Amino acid sequence: MFSPNIDDRERDCFAYIQDLTVKNVRPLMDDGDSLPVHIVIGGTSKIFFNEVLSVASGSVTEIISYTVPAGKLFSLNSVDVSGSNLASYKVKLNGIVIMVKRSWWTRFNLTFGFTLFELQAGDILTVDVTHNRPTSADFECSIIGSEL
Q1: 24 or 92: which carries more pLDDT confidence?
Q2: Residues 61 and 115 in one domain
Q3: 128 — pLDDT class (breaks 50, 70, 90)
Q4: Are residues 71 and 127 in the same domain?
Q5: pLDDT tens-digit profile of 73-88?
Q6: Which pLDDT value is given to residue 73?
């Protein structure tokens, strides 16, 4: 993984490649140019997974719920959802819908991407699914991020 860091005082670039640090790399750039920077937040990587089986047609069903522990923060990277039928997925933060996606015949696996989205202690993240096909279906969800 390559993560450039820029020292604004001297416009020096430091490259971090896995555990190796390469110092004093001079980027070739003009004033006003920008470098893509990947911000890596520390903490403990976490993946929370759950599945619900035989979800009835037309019913709103919670697939997963995560509460940020007391004294912690959670940096949310993504919420990945999947299912065996067409569906609408809602990501909620403290009961309020913040994102919605729908699966389709050629796309049953979906990802809700987040950049620097930080949840506070006590925040509750839930993911609900609804489908209206005539048969029951199975659905899965993973919450991926870092606990700080």
Answers
A1: 92
A2: yes
A3: very high
A4: yes
A5: 999 999 999 999 999 9
A6: 95
Region 120-145: mean pLDDT is: 96
DSSP string over the chain: -EEEEEETTTTEEEEEETTEEEEEE-----TT----------SEEEEEEEEEEEEPTT--EEEEEEEPPTT--EEEEEEEEEESS--EEEEEETTEEEEEEE-BTTB-EEEEEEEEEEEPTT-EEEEEEE--SSS-EEEEEEEEEEE-
75: domain range?
Answer: 44-147
**Opening angle at CA 94, ends 58 and 90, nearest 5:** 35
Give residue-wise pLDDT tens across range 117-127. 999 999 999 99
Provide the domain count of the chain: 2
Domain shared by 127 and 84, yes or no: yes
What's the CA gap between 65 and 88, in Å, rounded? 17
